[in-house]
Every structure is written in C-alpha cells, then in structure tokens.
Amino acid sequence: MTNNFSENNPQPLTHLDSSGEARMVDVSEKAKTRRRAIAAGWVRMLPETLEAIAAGNAPKGDVLTTAKLAGIMAAKQTAQLIPLCHPLPLGKIDVNLTPDPQLPGYRIEASVVTTAETGVEMEAMTAVSVAALTLYDMAKGLEKSIEIGSIRLVSKSGGKSGDYYESREVI
Question: Is residue 139 classed as helix, strand or coil in its secondary structure?
Fold first, then answer.
C-alpha cells in the first residue's frame, strides 16, 4: 500500500506513513490541553441474574466493585493493549455501573480526563469494555448467556478536532 488517502477522506491517514506502513502519530509538537472522553455500553442479562448481583449473591463475590476497578485499571493500561495509542498521564477516571431493569442489566459509563497532546477516547472505551468483560466473568456462574453491547464514544472535549456528542439513540 503506497497511498495514505482514502476515497471518502482526502486527508492523509494519520497512522500510515508515506509507504503505507503503520506508525505511531507524532504528537510532540501539539499543545497540551485538557481533554475528556465519555464512553458507554451495556451488559444484558436475565432479570434473575440482575437481582442476584444487586443482592450480592454472585458466586465470585462483589461483581460491581470488581468490574469498576477493572475498568479503571484497564484505562491506565490502554497504551499497552492498543498498539498505536500513546501512553497518557490520566488525571481522572470514573467508571459507573448502573442497574437498568428495563434492559435488564447494567449500563456502564466511563469518563477519563487528561491534560496531554492527544485525547482519551480509547482509554474511556477500554474502561467500558473491560468493566463489561469483568462483569461477565464475575457473573458467568449465574448465567452464561450474558450479552455485552453498544460500546461507543458518547462525548469528547478538547483538542484540535473540537467537541463531539453522540447524536443517535442507543438501547
């Protein structure tokens, strides 16, 4: 591949060099600014599984605290998991798991803040993903058919590309 342009986007693809090889983007000349990203997703389960988790009756123990901590730890390890991500000094990470009887299951939201040359979207989505996987792992003794879905960026602020806010309805 020698072309780092796509048909739909005439801008150069930032993670490809002039010969089409993958590369880490050079952000060393960019200004450090405050950046925040919020990601979300959900974990769907049977109503009985939701009730057992809420009551603290899962075989492996405290499902929600473990999933929250796993999400926080994952955000801090994103650069080691995603090959071209920059290691960032994360100033704040919040991971929240909220029961939703209508789903039924849990809605997961992660908010990550930094002051750096590049954004924290991947850190927020990694936090949600690993929190969801940990919830599954902690509750699989109750139900194997737990479903994880709709992991996505909800909003971001800061940086050259400006702010972004999710504009679609998600279950």
Answer: helix
